[in-house]
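[job 0412] stage=complex_fold ligand=MTE status=START
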Amino acid sequence: MLIRRTTDILPSEITPRAVYLSRRQWMAGAAGLTLAAALPKGPEAAPLSAAKSPFSTDEKKTSREDVTSYNNYYEFGTGKEDPAAKAGSLKNSPWTVKVDGMVGKPAEFAIEDLIKSSALEERIYRMRCVEGWSMVIPWVGFPLADLVKRVEPLGSAKYVAFETAYRPEEMPGVQSMFPVLDWPYVEGLRLDEAMNPLAILAVGLYGETLPNQNGAPIRLVVPWKYGFKGIKSITRISFVDKQPETSWNKQAPSEYGFYANVNPSVDHPRWSQATERRIGEGGLFVKRRPTLMFNGYAEQVASLYAGMDLRKLY
Ligand code: MTE
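[job 0412] stage=complex_fold status=DONE, emitting structure tokens
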């Protein structure tokens, strides 16, 4: 999908999204529509204490530097370095998350109350981007299932829809005359996926509150799915009875599905998903590692998809 410097792109990572986007990015840049200069820095990170989790991997963590400087957050531009440079303009306090739709107890949570009332855990997860690179990130968060239970979904609720903040005045990428996506960024899960213990709402990484570029103050992490499911800076979570629209699926339905489960045997229409480049392991010519089914989390999640044709429901 996403754009990066030409020197940073592997042949297998030159995606239709990259080609499509580079044209748009050029047009947006040419039109002088970004607020690149003089944007405020994000708020200071605050420490978070969190319990260890048996779901964490003991693989080598990607450095904090890489996790916080090589990002995808198109509301702030399509370059990997844009979010770190520009996302400081997003005011993440005060912040509320509205939970509504088919629930017995709709609510609007102030982010600090949500954090205080949740049992935070460190979850060190692999993250596999659909573009063919991966990281190992020590998130701090709480199970999405905990929030789901608090609002008491009705029997009619089958899916959970998520929405990112829509703040053109704070998001240079959203102001572009040539928008890359339909804003706000939206994502969704089936309710049983949302209840899986691996799915978390992350509020921090590396033991501190999330940097803006990683989706402060709260974002979704579903480690068995491609990274684009991990919607950032969530303001609304709605329980619905129909499969919700998702941003990249709306943009290119034949390339990005609703499920987006990591699957080395189902290639993207224009590149292989069999291998990946672990960020921080060296330059472009480093040996790629094999991609694992469900990103290595098959034991916990494969049963969710029993009987489904994962070639069709990609
Ligand atoms: N959420 C929003 N709102 N906007 C985005 O552009 N990019 C997605 C996802 N969440 C994105 C988003 C993609 S493509 C990826 S790979 C991950 O965020 C990247 O998360 P990271 O920058 O914290 O590594």
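The helical segments are 16-30, 64-69, 82-86, 111-116, 144-151, 191-195, 247-251, 298-301.
[job 0412] exit 0
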